[in-house]
């Protein structure tokens, strides 16, 4: 059965100063949480753009990437960035959609020779690619192809680097996953990169939910970053109104066709429409918190 999709674009900065970025995302018309861009991803991406100099020349891993807006934005910030976009190993549809979105954006990255690889690619291809899409199940540290120790070893041996930033937008959604997420972060910080930080947007859905006891258990600390630091209006996100109407069967359209359609469209586009946050997301932006988690000093 075909899965229909929408192509959406998100703009950061302005093209007038040659510094703007446009990230193209493919959303699937599927019930899975990871098939849509959530408001928390907007907030995280806007913060990354505001602090973009701190995300250049870095190794970035996005956990529970879904549509990967923050991770793709990071990739676009510097040709020396290395990015790993991850989601659960059994979310095959989501992982394939991440690859599709990467291919849509490669023509607009600084280095248009970029390639995307996954675990199944030969070692030499993984070594030369600076964008990986990998399955990663939180809280699992056994030695199999999609486990965390293998990913960390690949980053160290194939890239010769260590993780600088971990990203996650709305990863704290289901309370049953909270400890697996925190445990995954702690493992990375303790055994791989003690100076790395986990930057996450957290939408409060219940005042009874808290991760503080888990942070204490895993020897982590957290600071809240005020959204007032952002110089942009968080209510203004641009989406191509025409492409919202352009639903395509993902099984019928090749990656090259997606890329060519997107390039032609963006070159010819004369205007954007603005999302009305009240209509699209209610007041959800107001309930989002930006957190930075690190090893307790």
Question: Could you characterize the architecture of this molecule?
Answer:
InterPro entries: Methyltransf_16, SAM-dependent_MTases_sf. Pfam families: Methyltransf_16 (PF10294). It comes from Paraglomus occultum. Keywords: Methyltransferase, S-adenosyl-L-methionine, Transferase. Belongs to the methyltransferase superfamily. METTL23 family. The structure is a single chain. The N and C termini lie far apart (52 Å). Helix 1 (39-50) packs parallel to helix 2 (69-77) and helix 3 (92-105) crosses helix 9. Residues 237-283 have low confidence and may be disordered. Helix 4 (123-128) links the parallel strand 5 (116-117) and strand 6. This protein has ten helices and 13 strands. It has 297 residues and is an alpha/beta fold. It is globular. It has helices at residues 39-50, 69-77, 92-105, 123-128, 148-159, 178-191, 212-217, 241-244, 255-268, 277-281, and strands at residues 4-12, 21-28, 59-62, 82-87, 116-117, 131-135, 165-169, 197-203, 220-225, 238-239, 248-249, 273-274, 288-295. It has an eight-stranded mixed beta sheet with strand order 5-6-4-3-7-8-13-9. The chain has a three-stranded antiparallel beta sheet with strand order 2-1-11. It has a single domain, classed as Vaccinia Virus protein VP39 (Rossmann fold, 3-Layer(aba) Sandwich), CATH 3.40.50.150.
Keywords:
single chain; 297 residues; alpha/beta; Rossmann fold; eight-stranded mixed sheet; three-stranded antiparallel sheet; 32% helix
Topology of helices and strands:
Blueprint: E1 4-12, E2 21-28, H1 39-50, E3 59-62, H2 69-77, E4 82-87, H3 92-105, E5 116-117, H4 123-128, E6 131-135, H5 148-159, E7 165-169, H6 178-191, E8 197-203, H7 212-217, E9 220-225, E10 238-239, H8 241-244, E11 248-249, H9 255-268, E12 273-274, H10 277-281, E13 288-295
Parallel strand pairs: 3-4, 3-7, 4-6, 5-6, 7-8
Antiparallel strand pairs: 1-2, 1-11, 8-13, 9-13, 10-12
Helix pairs in contact: 1-2, 3-9
């Amino acid at each position: 059965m075909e899965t229909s999709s929408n192509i959406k674009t998100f703009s950061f900065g302005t093209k007038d100063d040659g510094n703007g970025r446009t990230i193209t995302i493919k959303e699937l018309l599927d019930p899975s949480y990871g098939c849509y861009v959530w408001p928390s991803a907007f907030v995280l991406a806007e913060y990354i753009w505001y602090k973009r100099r701190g995300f250049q020349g870095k190794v970035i891993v996005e956990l529970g990437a879904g549509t990967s807006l923050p991770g793709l934005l990071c990739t676009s910030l510097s040709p020396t960035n290395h990015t790993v976009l991850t989601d659960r190993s059994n979310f095959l549809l989501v992982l394939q959609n991440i690859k599709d979105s990467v291919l849509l954006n490669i023509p607009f990255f600084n280095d248009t020779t970029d390639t995307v690889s996954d675990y199944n690619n030969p070692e030499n291809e993984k070594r030369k690619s600076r964008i990986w899409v990998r399955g990663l199940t939180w809280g699992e540290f056994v030695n199999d192809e999609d486990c965390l120790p293998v990913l960390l070893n690949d980053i160290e041996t194939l890239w010769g680097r260590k993780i600088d930033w971990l990203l996650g937008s709305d990863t704290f959604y289901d309370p049953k996953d909270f400890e697996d997420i925190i445990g995954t972060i702690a493992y990375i910080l303790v055994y791989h990169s003690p100076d790395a930080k986990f930057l996450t947007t957290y939408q409060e859905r219940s005042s009874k939910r808290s991760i503080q006891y888990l942070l204490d258990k895993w020897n982590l600390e957290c600071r809240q970053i005020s959204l007032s630091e952002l110089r942009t209006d968080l209510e203004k996100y641009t989406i191509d109104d025409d492409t919202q109407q352009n639903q395509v069967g993902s099984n019928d359209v090749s990656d090259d066709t997606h890329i060519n359609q997107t390039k032609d469209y963006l070159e010819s586009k004369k205007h954007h429409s603005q999302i009305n946050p009240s209509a699209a997301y209610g007041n959800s932006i107001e309930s989002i918190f930006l957190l930075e988690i690190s090893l307790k000093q």
